[in-house]
Specification:
Strand content: 35-45%
Distance between the termini: 44 Å
Structural class: mainly beta
Helix content: under 10%
Low-confidence stretches: none
Strand order of the largest sheet: 2-1-5-3-4
Number of strands: 8
Mean pLDDT: 84
Number of helices: 2
Shape: elongated
Radius of gyration: 20 Å
Length: 121
């Protein structure tokens, strides 16, 4: 069966592939190009409102030839903390790992925030 995977917000086609009804989400995700395939993001594929999970296949969901599947990509959740030692820290919420320590204050850091566009730490 021929299926298309589109970016959920833009509707831009990312992948058109001849798929097997036995394929699950990993089979489709492995074929995604470039940034859509990046490991630092969470990726989920939907057919309508139903998420394609590892427990089911395209055929299990009733996906048919010509179907358009939606890809939802989300950045991993980060937590920003401030502390009395003059540093702010960025943590990975899923792993609990400290990703970066921001230093430079003489006194306590009383608050911290991400930039609205998430382009600066």
């Amino acid at each position: 069966m021929q299926v298309s995977v589109v970016a959920s917000l833009t509707g831009r086609q990312l992948l058109a592939v001849q798929a097997s009804p036995t394929w699950g989400p990993q089979d489709l995700l492995r074929r995604l190009p470039g940034r859509a395939a990046a490991d630092d993001c969470r990726r989920r594929i939907f057919w309508g409102a139903t998420e394609l999970s590892s427990a089911c296949s395209l055929g299990d969901l009733g996906v048919t030839d010509g179907a358009r599947l939606s890809l939802v990509v989300s950045r991993p959740l980060h937590v920003l903390t401030a502390s009395g030692d003059g540093a702010a820290r960025i943590w990975s919420a899923p792993s609990g790992e400290c990703l970066r320590t921001l230093r430079g204050h003489d006194g306590s850091v009383l608050s911290a925030a991400f930039s609205p566009t998430a382009t600066r730490w």
